[in-house]
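Posted in: Structural Biology > Protein-Ligand Complexes

Title: Requesting predicted complex, zinc ion in pocket

I'd be grateful if someone could produce the 3D structure tokens for the following input. Sequence and ligand are given below.
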Amino acid sequence: MSPETTSRSVSGRPGWRVDTATSWSPLHGSLFCATYLDLLPCSLFYQTTLLLQGEGLLFCVSATDFIAAAERLWLNGNVSSTFGASIIMTLIQPFVTEVNFESGAFTPRRGVYQRRLSDMAGMYADRDEAARILAGEGDRLIYEVHTVELPVEEGQIPHCTTRILPGTIGGECHMTKGHYHARREQGEVYFGLSGRGMLLLQTADGNASELEMVAGSAAYVPPFWAHRTVNIGAEDFVFFSIWEARAGHDYGTIERDGFRKLVMLRDGEPAVVDNPKYG
Ligand code: M6P
Ligand code: ZN
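-- Reply #1 --
Done. Output follows.
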């Protein structure tokens, strides 16, 4: 029996197409549902298949969604022992990126985003001073991130460089927004490329840590630790980061509570102090 096929685009994913083929399988009277996701721009390919008994519908846009849907069906007793699934993960071409240790720039240039003072004015302890700088000097660049773009899929390893410009806001050193991983059980590795920085870490249950970083420092961010980097020098602080694709960024918790510690610059030297507004 030749299956009926339908084709549709994936919202928010330009160029992606999903072809769905369904037919009644002669096996066990089950509904055979095959979903193919063809990621055209990168020549990527997923294939997911599932044998369902009785009524069932499975429509997935990623291998992760597929597993979640299959688990739900399994737990709800909608899938019998005829259940079978095969997933072919994304195959992408190997690539190399040249990294400029002073600027953090990637060649070839891939993704870049910038964060300015207006993106994070409320994160500095002295909000009045942040507002004064915005009104006078303008919207200062605080840091920029050079990224590679990879599918958000288990096994992929995103990596990027971050360049934090030197400077202070009300005496507090320029810093990144900072985040927990949405999946708290995922860690990360930072490698210092140039300048002088500090890595602030904390856990939800009260631990805090500060690690100084220079060119050549490899810092480990263990699972469950929120992390923020700070420029404590007079030059740009540039570092390289590597994490697991599905870790995700949870900014909301830090936006709400802040970090336990602040890094101030006093007579050109960093001082780590308690954040009076924490929590
Ligand atoms: C590091 C990594 C990135 C992060 C970047 C900027 O390079 O941890 O994942 O995006 O720093 O930090 P933030 O996302 O907290 O602004
Ligand atoms: Zn992270």
